Amino acid sequence: IFDFNSFEQLCINLTNEKIQQFFNHHMFTLEQEEYRKEGIKWDFIDFGLDLEPTIELIERNMGVFAVMDEECIMPKATDQTFLSKLHGIHSGKHPKYLQPSAKSNLGVIQVHFQIVHYAGCVGYNVDGWLDKNKDPLNENVVELFVKSKEPIFSKLFEAPEVVSSARSGGRKKGASFQTVAMMHKSAVEHLLVTLRSTTPHFIRCILPNMKKKSGVIEAGLVLEQLKCNGVLEGIRIVRKGFPNRLMYQEFVQRYTILAPKAIPPGFMDGMKATQLLVEALNLEENEYRMGHSKVCFVAVLSFQGKA
Description:
By secondary structure, the chain is mainly alpha-helical. The protein is built from 13 helices and six strands.
């Protein structure tokens, strides 16, 4: 968390919030929903990692972006009128919005308002925000660069043009009036649509120390990042649940070799064949669950050497 945070950092933090929310939903909600679908007895665990209140504060109706966009069309609006509106709407009313006290603003860097993000409380300075928000890329300028004979220009400006067209329903007219906040929200949503259409795998980047030195690990810093990123909760649900799942037929085909005499010759229902196989492997009752279509296992099995 930086000492000075302006409009650009809020855009970055919104992106981080939405990607983290995507991770939480995939890791915690969908993981537990799978047990319900399979008919496996499971007590739903609420990990308290819903980031929707913070996301709504920034981008939904009467959120920071909406108020800023509204101020951008007001002829006499200033950064301070924008800040006053934010305080009037959210101060003391939204759990993720904080108005700093006068005593806390005695330093060199002024903090005008604070937002409680998943990684911690971040203070923002609104100086210059309206000017920054009213400075989107003009549609005609984007088209000019996209048609450039220089490949680097054409490539760099291709994405903003696509996002802008998507927001305007394919109509060029009106796209020039989009604010930076509008364009950023559209770009993030476009990213999430792409992520939702894939099978995600997550790689966590952990900052080992604040000194930028190799071979130095600050345990407190690393642990705090693991907590904020939901990694520790992810480990917890994996340890309590059954993260390894296979369709019955696939399990039988893959593991019959471990107990070749367990399943009699001839056709047999996949669930029944799986049951015979896991019994022959002497699996403990708490190591697996039989679902409607899949067999689910704990993270580490202990059948090696038993069969």
